[in-house]
Each structure stands twice: as structure tokens, then as C-alpha cells.
Amino acid sequence: MDIITILQNKPVLIGLHLGFAIIGIDAFLWLLWKFRSNNSSQKNGTKTALVGVISFIFSWIAGGYYYVVFYGALVKPIIKTGMAPWAHNVVMEIKEHIFLFIIPLAMTVFFITLLKMEEIEQFKLHRLVCWLSGTVAVLGLLIGVMGFIISAAARWGAIG
Amino acid sequence: MNMNKLKLIIASAYAALVSVLFVVIITIISELVPSLKDWLKNLFGHHWVSKSILSVLLYLIVAKILYFSVCNNNNGQRVRKSLKLLLIFVVLGVVAISLFYIGHYFHIF
Known about the structure:
- The complex is a heterodimer of chains A (160) and B (109).
- Chain A has one domain.
- Chain A has six helices and no strands.
- Chain A has helices at residues 3-7, 10-36, 42-81, 86-112, 117-122, 126-159.
- By secondary structure, chain B is an all-alpha fold.
- Chain B contains four helices and no strands.
- Chain B starts with a helix and ends with a helix.
- At the A-B interface, α3, α4 and α6 of A face α1, α3 and α4 of B.
């Protein structure tokens, strides 16, 4: 079994999607904590933000591949005929679209981290960068909760 | 201090804002106008893939245009304004998408 076949495996795709999302969320939570505690060197902040952006991109690719290739044909019908069709019609639809907000937002935070801490203070961006980092993390967590709801609906749709 | 970094931040913030606005508008309209959803499906094989690619391209293009058109004389106020607007539009975007799909599910619109 070659690496491409392994990567196209459904559980592997979900694992990659979730795993990279967790790394992305943690990166921006870390960044938030660093900025709030004024404990960030410019280099560390930039590296953390970059890890976050790249992780979200990989999460997007893995999740997007799974969604396009497998979810529509295999999972969606189960949810829609199960006990919680709203898990697709409302939750999945919201999830798949607000996910698209994350990367441009995360990129903007990354660009802010290119400034030195003194410049962030000088331009009074400290509070905003905290809010923006926090928003990226909260969006990620919200999307994670929605993913859990969708998975649960699929499980119970298959069992029930 | 590096003015290019400030230009980059302003350009990215407004480009991200435009991208968010685009996703919200095209998502709502494509649900209400099936022919638009079909067009998106035909563009890159799946409507969500098309929205993803278009939103990324829009972000990149708008960021590039703004970077080269934003003047070098940037102060903190301009940067803060762009970031505040981005934050507001992201929150409004989440609310708009959520309310739309809830309303759509209950056949309100």
C-alpha cells in the first residue's frame, strides 16, 4: 500500500483534518497567550502564526478532499435520513462556509507578527492582535464542535 | 520601521474582509438561485471547491492590488481601522451564514 493510497483512506483523511485543525487552533491560542502575557519575541510569534496558517491549510485540503470525494456520497444520505437531518442542512453548511474565513484571517494575524513587539505597542495593535488571534482560535473550536455534531449524527443515523 | 509590513497588514485585512463578504454573498445567492450553484459546480467540479478557490484567488488578488495602491504614509490609525473592520465583518459573516441556513432549513427563505 503506497502513501497516496494511505492518505486517501477515510479515517486517515479525517484524522489529518482534525489533527492539523487542532495544531492550528493551538497555535493561535498560544499566540493569544503570548501576546496577552507580553511574552512573545517577534521571531517566536511569527513562527507560531506560520505553523497555525500552514496547519489550517493542510486541514482544509484533507477535509476538503474527504468532503468532496466521500462525504456527499456516503455520509450525507445517512445524516439526511437519520434522526438529525439538520446536522447536514444547517450545521455542515455553516461549518463548510465559515471555514473559508479562517485562512485569510490567520494570514492577516501572521502579517501582524512580522512587526516587532515595540511596533505593535507603538501602533496600539496589541489588543486587536489578541482579539484576532482569539477569533481564529474560537472559529476553529466552533468548527470542531460542529464537526463533532455532524459525526455524531452520521453515527446515530447509521445505527438508528 | 518597515512601512511595507504595515501596507501588508492593511492589504491583507481588507483582502480578507472582501473574501469573507464574497463567501457570504455567493453562498446565500447560490442557495436561492440554483443556476448559480450549478455554475459553481461546473466551474471546478463541486460548488464548495469553487467557492474555496474563488475566495482564495480573490484574497490574493485584492491583497496584491491593495498592497501596491496603499500609500506609504501609514499610521497606526489606518492599520487599526482595517483590523477592526475585518473583525466586525468576520463576526457578521458568521452570524449571517448561520442565520441564513437556520432560516433556510425552516423555509423562512
